[in-house]
Amino acid sequence: MALPELKGFNKEELDEVVECLKKALKDPKLREVSQRAVQGKIWHLEPKVASVLSDLKAQEEVVRSHILKVISSLVYQFHEHTLDTTLARAGLKKDVRVHAGSFLEEKNGQLDLICLDAKERLYILLKEYGWLQEFFRLYPLHFYENSFAFVDRIPKKKLRVKVKVVGLGIGGSMAVSGLAKAGVDTVIGYDKRNQASVTSRYQNASWRAYDVAQKLLDEQAYDELMAYRQKINVKYDDGTTGVMISDRVQIILGGAIGSALGSAERYGAKLEFEKDLSQEDTIEDKSDIVALFAGAHTCKLFDDLETDMHIYEWPEVQSDCKMWLKIKPSEKEEAYSARSGEVGAENWHYTIESARATLEDIARVKNNVERQYQGNLKKLKNGTDIGISEEEITKKYTYQMDQLNKVQSSVEGGETPGGRFDYIFTNAPTNEHNLSKREEAIADGTVVLDGGYLVELKLAANSSFEGNKKVTKHLNSEIVVCGGDACVPPNPQAAYGATLACESAEKVVQLAIGYGHLNAILADLEEIGTMNGSGQWKESLVELKSLLKLYYEARGRSENYFQW
């Protein structure tokens, strides 16, 4: 079966989408509403914007349909040799080799056990991708096995796959935890920064990917993320009231990363900090998959990677943003989390506020203040003009640290209700109107960090690479995949950045699980040579691996476009 061909992105079509957005935003009434409301209206008012995603989703579905068809054929062929062992697995027949709790690790070249294990691994793969019920609906010839919940009771199997994750931000940290949780044979995470720096990000993220976190993290880490889930008080038309749990949770990004890394370590993943694989001359040990979660500048890590990723960009519509963080003793009686802000064109800002008792979050901010201070001193020493003198930098640093120490002392001394402090984080485009807000915030003496960033309109056409490309050779991996900010730079108006990174982490875990099961099946088939048509099975399994890679790319394009 020939592999489907992905249409991919078309620059002219994307240019048309950009022009649709420009045209829509010329409407003064549209510019009066919030950025999320703008998105919602444009999605309906400009059909071209949604039609591109429809086309991408259609391609994704074509690949998925091919995968289901190949799996159905393989399952049917394997089942021919496992009629009795399948019944034994279900407890409907006695077989000393097989029972409900058998791991099937010692098959000793026995064809029926090899085929049973292979069939079960394919079912587990389908379940991991969330396609199992759809598979039984589309291919009812397999439905009998589902009728007694056979699949749900398959014991966990070892995964013959080695995965490295480069970059341990929110996406990479989720990935290493999920890979280790799934039982991937070898999981190693790398970051060129030290661990304190990795987990000291002070930005907030409005993040709705609870289902991804629940799949990839352990219970402890998931509970830590859920601690500040936003609640909304609702008054109904009949006069009754209720509390609605929002689909958002306000997390401090560094805290979420720390929780995910803790989960990864508890599951047994190996983490290496202050190690930059892009600077390694040769990487001796071969990997099945290397996942790059190294941020918006991932494409600069290796020679030719930017060309391979095929980055589309629109520099004429990039913009500057400011952000600042206020910390002060809280008067809130209980844990609190909310969003606020101003809406309308360039004057918008959004603020995420929470009242929390987590002193480690103050420590994270201190790490950021220290790093920012030392970085500025280094720039001055190298002769770089940063628009501020060493005396002014030191004065600002001293003030920020004093404010943080004061808040920490009030919390530790029980001077605030519940030992809480207010953590108030604001983003806004850079203009005179918003700079006045920033100056007003600084004037009240509670701003402990302020900075800025560039919002770039970029989109990677490709997020996976294999074969003879330089990046796969350098990293010594069968396939290299990218995710999160590597494909679409962060954009505060999209409010999907952290979610996109987590979605990418889930895709990496799914791909690794698929690889692990298929590698195990292929290894078992090597033991029996070409008996009973196993040569054809091997061809189908290799094709299935290629389809899983293609699905990563197809789904990635859909998710990346939505964030873009």
Q: Order of strands across the widest beta sheet?
A: 6-2-1-7-16-15
- The whole-angstrom Rg is 26 Å
The share of residues in extended strands comes to 15-25%
Quickly count the helices: 19
What is the helix content? 40-55%
The total of beta strands comes to 16
Structural class: alpha/beta
Main beta-sheet annotation = 6 strands, mixed
**Average of the residue pLDDT scores:** 88
Overall geometric form: globular
- Spatial separation of the terminal alpha carbons: 33 Å
Low-confidence stretches: none
Question: What does the model show?
Answer:
This protein is of the alpha/beta class and 564 residues long. 48% of the residues lie in helices and 19% in strands. The strands form four sheets. A six-stranded mixed sheet has the order 6-2-1-7-16-15. Strands 10-11-12-9-13 form a five-stranded antiparallel sheet, with helices on both faces. Strands 3-5-4 form a three-stranded antiparallel sheet. Strand 4 and strand 5 (241-252) form a beta hairpin.
SSE diagram, text form:
Elements: H1 11-24, H2 35-45, H3 47-79, H4 83-89, H5 111-128, H6 132-138, H7 143-147, E1 159-166, H8 170-182, E2 184-191, H9 195-198, E3 204-207, H10 210-216, H11 219-226, E4 229-235, E5 241-252, H12 253-267, E6 270-273, E7 287-292, H13 305-309, E8 311-313, E9 319-329, E10 336-342, E11 349-356, H14 359-381, H15 390-412, E12 421-429, H16 432-443, E13 447-455, E14 458-460, E15 464-466, H17 470-475, E16 477-482, H18 497-527, H19 534-563
Parallel strand pairs: 1-2, 1-7, 2-6, 7-16
Antiparallel strand pairs: 3-5, 4-5, 8-14, 9-12, 9-13, 10-11, 11-12, 15-16
Helix pairs in contact: 2-3, 3-5, 3-19, 5-18, 8-12, 8-18, 10-18, 11-12, 14-15, 18-19
